[in-house]
Amino acid sequence: MRPKIIMHNTISLDGSLTNFCVNMELHYRILGTFNADAHLIGSNTAKSGLDLFLDTIPPETPKNKEPPKPQLTDIRPLWILIDSHAQMYNLLHIFRQYEFCKDVIVLITSKTPAKYSEYLTSRHYHIIRSGTQHVNLNQALEILHKHYHINTIVTDTGHTLNSILLRQGLLDEISLIINPVIVGQNQLNVFKTLSQSIQPNQLHLLKSTPLENNSIHLHYEIIKNQMDGISS
Ligand SMILES: NC(=O)c1ccc[n+]([C@@H]2O[C@H](COP(=O)([O-])OP(=O)(O)OC[C@H]3O[C@@H](n4cnc5c(N)ncnc54)[C@H](OP(=O)(O)O)[C@@H]3O)[C@@H](O)[C@H]2O)c1
């Protein structure tokens, strides 16, 4: 068994993930309504977030090198980072400093540089190693469910991971906040690398909610038995 995965993005009217101003407060407020056990974060998203929001990297403190003490009353989500290529080397303490993060689980592969594995183990980050060139998502998700009791995951990912999750049949729901802005030729489509199309009978609308500033929230369920017959 694997956890349910809800993809969540804020996009422009023409489907772009970037090159417009995302209302972060709204983005995370809607994301919070899913009460997910964990957030799944792509390494490019993590790295670009630091570049975007931090002028300088805060230093790692001795406390950041230790795992937080588990508390039964702590209902904050775990953050799961897919980072087989060590993009967050020497940067993960920023996640531990973030008040909304319970702790970090890093998904890596058998080919992940040893230096990164040593960095992670010396700081007691949870590690799941699966796959060779890329993380074996199916296998990692089963471990997350079995060993970490994670039932629901919400994503914080860009077009790459969105497309892979959908292609591998691992997405269960799609949540999109649509901003009334058209990016035009500089758009980066939310499923840019998806090679197949998804038809109306494969998506069931769960909710459509008008939001402030003429934005709208759309929430779809992906109909799984219809996905089986998908053509590339
Ligand atoms: N508007 C929004 O809601 C929103 C939200 C999130 C991100 N963004 C934007 O999206 C952009 C980043 O998007 P992105 O598509 O470049 O990156 P991404 O989805 O954040 O990261 C790519 C991820 O895919 C993994 N990956 C690649 N191929 C894989 C495979 N075959 N199997 C398993 N995992 C695989 C990579 O893992 P490895 O590291 O192990 O290779 C990496 O973790 C940024 O500009 C960010 O600002 C926008």
Question: Overview of this structure, please?
Answer:
- 25% of the residues lie in helices and 24% in strands.
- With 232 residues, it is α/β, with parallel strands linked by helices.
- It folds into two domains: 1-36 and 163-232, Dihydrofolate Reductase, subunit A, CATH 3.40.430; 38-58 and 77-150, Dihydrofolate Reductase, subunit A, CATH 3.40.430.
- The chain has a nine-stranded mixed beta sheet with strand order 5-4-3-2-6-1-7-9-8, sandwiched between helices.
- The model has no long low-confidence stretch (mean pLDDT 95).
- NADP nicotinamide-adenine-dinucleotide phosphate is lined by residues 9-10, 17-18, 22, 42-45, 48, 82-85, 87, 134-135, 137, 156-161, 164.
- NADP nicotinamide-adenine-dinucleotide phosphate binds at residues 9-10, 17-18, 22, 42-45, 48, 82-85, 87, 134-135, 137, 156-161, 164.
Which tags fit this structure?
2 domains, Dihydrofolate Reductase, subunit A, alpha/beta, 232 residues, nine-stranded mixed β-sheet
